[in-house]
From TrEMBL:
This is 6-phosphogluconolactonase. It catalyses: 6-phospho-D-glucono-1,5-lactone + H2O = 6-phospho-D-gluconate + H(+). Pathway: Carbohydrate degradation; pentose phosphate pathway; D-ribulose 5-phosphate from D-glucose 6-phosphate (oxidative stage): step 2/3. It comes from Pinguiococcus pyrenoidosus. NCBIfam families: pgl. CDD domains: 6PGL (cd01400). Gene3D superfamilies: 3.40.50.1360. Residues 46-267 form the Glucosamine/galactosamine-6-phosphate isomerase domain.
Length: 288
């Protein structure tokens, strides 16, 4: 710390000028971890309790977004999150919510593999649309065209023309697999390096079905907030690695979930005890 303060040049007013690496070195001394600002880690006793932790978070964030922009734009994921989210949102007025999908399997809505279909059966069941607006993929198109179409409709809903800056979602809710994949971004896949498309087609998913659409990292990391919702002891080793990585300036990233680092937004983790089993004790409850 002393070296950082006294080793740098003196700027206007006699204040020390420090380089970016020196600044990062100072943060732990100041009580702030390099990437911990805005980071929250919530650990619930059980999978069922995760929904109870999500409820006040969603209630507060959606109220603020609706006050600011007239709607709450949230991207959701499939799998076990469907039931957790339905429970967390039970009784909450979601009429001004705009639901999009962080990723979707390229199948018909009636398929058991369809994330939209799972939400339609578990939450989007109101015929009057009182659950809010839903942007579903056009599965009747070919895969590449469906990706272009989904990005266009998402931009339109957010008032962002093609070629504009990345539209900002209020929240992206992500799960994570035991292999560290999130959305449909898989280990070693070229889509981890995608810089231009906001919605990308994938035809070689290592997890069936092979054809999917996924939000890319520029869109995910451009969100105001990103929250991982992860349960299960099988994911504990990867969770510990990913959460630990989120508090560091890592030179090499191992898992796709590590690539999720909001540019100017905040990162949250909602875990059950199983998923948090190998988490460093110092990280439990950070920011919450």
């Amino acid at each position: 710390v002393r070296d950082a303060l006294h080793g740098g040049r003196r700027g206007e007013g006699g204040f020390a000028e420090v380089s970016a690496p020196q600044f990062l070195a100072l943060l732990p001394w100041l009580g702030a971890h390099p990437l911990r600002m805005g980071l929250e880690i919530h650990v619930a006793e059980s999978k069922a309790d995760v929904a109870a932790h999500l409820r006040p978070y969603l209630e507060s964030l959606s109220a603020q977004s609706i006050a600011d922009r007239g709607k709450f734009v949230v991207a959701v994921s499939g799998g076990s999150m469907v039931g957790l989210l339905a429970s967390a949102l039970e009784g909450l007025d979601t009429s001004q919510f705009l639901f999009a999908f962080a990723d979707e399997r390229f199948v018909a809505p009636e398929s058991d593999d369809s994330t939209f279909g799972a939400y339609q059966r578990g939450f989007f069941s109101a015929e009057d649309g009182s659950q809010g607006e839903v942007i579903a993929i056009a599965h009747e198109l070919d895969l590449s065209t469906a990706a272009i179409d989904y990005e266009r409709r998402l931009r339109e809903a957010l008032g962002s023309a093609e070629g504009d800056t990345v539209p900002q979602l209020d929240l992206v809710l992500l799960g994570m697999g035991p292999d560290g994949h999130t959305a449909s971004l898989f280990p070693g896949h070229a889509l981890l390096q995608e810089k231009d498309a906001l919605i990308a087609p994938i035809s070689d998913s290592p997890k069936p079905p092979a054809e999917r659409l996924t939000m890319t990292l520029p869109l995910i990391n451009g969100a105001k907030q990103v929250a991982f919702v992860i349960t299960g002891e099988a994911k504990a080793p990867v969770v510990a690695h990913v959460v630990g990585s989120s508090t560091e300036v890592a030179e090499e990233l191992t898992y796709p979930a590590e690539y999720v680092r909001p540019t100017s937004g905040e990162l949250k983790f909602f875990l059950d005890e199983g998923a948090a089993k190998e988490l460093d004790a110092s990280l439990r409850g950070v920011g919450s």
